[in-house]
Amino acid sequence: MRKKTAELSDVSYYFGGEFRIYRHLFDARCPTPMKCLKGMIILRPGQTKGWMYYLCSGLLKVYMNNCEGNERSVAFITNDTLFGMDCFIPGQVSLTTIECMTDSWVMPFQSSVLEEIIRENADFAIDFARYYCKMLRQLCFDAENQSINNVLVRMVNFLLANWDDQDNSRVALSQQEIATAVSCSRSSVSRVCRLMKDEGAIVSEGVGFRIIDQNRMRNLLQRSPLSE
Q: What are phi and psi of 87, to 5 degrees?
């Protein structure tokens, strides 16, 4: 179990806005943004090679499939973010699947474009390195959280890392989408949601729910392990 979740408040599965001030650099070098419809897969593991993208608007899901074919979400991408960076090295193919959760607008580019921007703009190069550090911290946190053999703890840690009980309190994910992020069954997510409602930590709101008291959510971490 993590100690003092608030100390890792900078860890998030959501990436967005990191390159907003540099969008003009991509506008000048990339083709006109293309529309990708909800449900469209932009990158496929083992197939996409050499292409990366600037997300102008929309919401994307990054996920992988295990040996049993089950989906595991590892990140969510929002406006003004780069994605497909595992194709930056020439000849390397994508390792993840990236799918549109909403209609989205993206600008494609290749390694040569990114290299040119890095060489010409030192501030961009620094922010690009920071972006990778942010991703690495999230991946390390995710690896640690997934190693916990307790669905309740994995789910609460995931929620505390991405939402709060103030301005960013709306969890607009379905139970199945949460299940793919914390690697458990939808029925397990449903049981944890019932516990959090009974505790007074969340309230239902359309697809998903709203967090109203993080402290009560943390109290659940002291409860007995929840089995699958």
A: -100, 10
pLDDT tens for each residue of 177-225: 999 999 899 999 999 999 999 999 999 998 899 999 999 998 888 765 5
- We find that the CATH architecture of domain 149-222 is Orthogonal Bundle (1.10)
Q: Where are the domains of the chain?
A: 14-142, 149-222
Over residues 36-75, the pLDDT tens digits come to 999 999 998 888 788 999 999 999 999 987 656 678 899 9
HEC per residue, 150-172: CHHHHHHHHHHHHCCCCCCCEEC
14-142 adopts what CATH topology?
Jelly Rolls (2.60.120)
Find where tokens 């990140």 sit. Answer: 75
92 Rama sector, left if φ>0, alpha if ψ -120 to 50, beta otherwise? beta
